[in-house]
Amino acid sequence: QVQLVESGGGLVQAEGSLRLSCAASGRTLAAYAAGWFRQATGKEREFVATISRTGSTTSYADSVKGRFTISRDNAKNTVYLQMDSLKPEDTAVYYCAARETLLSPAYAPTTGLMYTAWGQGTQVTVSS
Q1: CA 78/CA 83 separation, integer angstroms
Q2: Would the pLDDT of 1 be above 90?
Q3: Sign of the CA dihedral 52, 77, 93, 88?
Q4: What is the pLDDT of residue 33?
Q5: Of the ranges 36-50, 81-95, 99-113, which one carries the lowest mean pLDDT score?
Q6: Of 11, 52, 69, 73, most Cβ neighbours within 10 A?
């Protein structure tokens, strides 16, 4: 099973930017679709973005569309989430997730239940 470690979180002012990274080990990330989810204090976990294992398919939550960009570098076994124009409501713990999709290279799940591996999360705090 693949292991995931997120990094890049921190404190940023509104309208600022952060780039989160999700580094995989144990298995090649090229075999996995990957997604980002977030959970704010007192709220349920929500979908943010997803990318298929080949990068051919991406999808975003409406709340981040046009501001966040998901990408991947399979040679580095890493998935990224570029977050621009950050808002205080983006404050949350951000989690990386992965699901093996060898037979479905264009598949990019948007539901947390479809993922089988999760990282420990990284805190993002946006001040107003």
Answers
A1: 16
A2: no
A3: negative
A4: 97
A5: 99-113
A6: 52
What is the CA 125 to chain-centroid distance, rounded? Answer: 16
How far is it, in rounded angstroms, from Cα 110 to Cα 5? 20
Q: State how far the alpha carbon of 59 is from the alpha carbons of 4, 51, 87, 98, 128, in Å.
A: 20, 7, 20, 15, 27
Check: CB of residue 58 under 8 Å from CB of residue 34: no
Token pair for 112: 């947390």
Beta carbons of 45 and 118 less than 8 angstroms apart = no
Among candidate residues 30, 34, 31, the one with its CA nearest the CA of residue 4: 34
CA triplet 58, 17, 71: central angle to 5 degrees?
25
Instruction: Please report which confidence band the pLDDT of residue 94 belongs to, taking 50, 70 and 90 as the band edges.
Output: very high
Q: What residues form DSSP beta bridges with 60?
A: 49
| Alpha-carbon span 94 to 62, nearest angstrom | 17
State how far the Cα of 59 lies from the Cα of 76, in Å rounded to an integer. Answer: 22
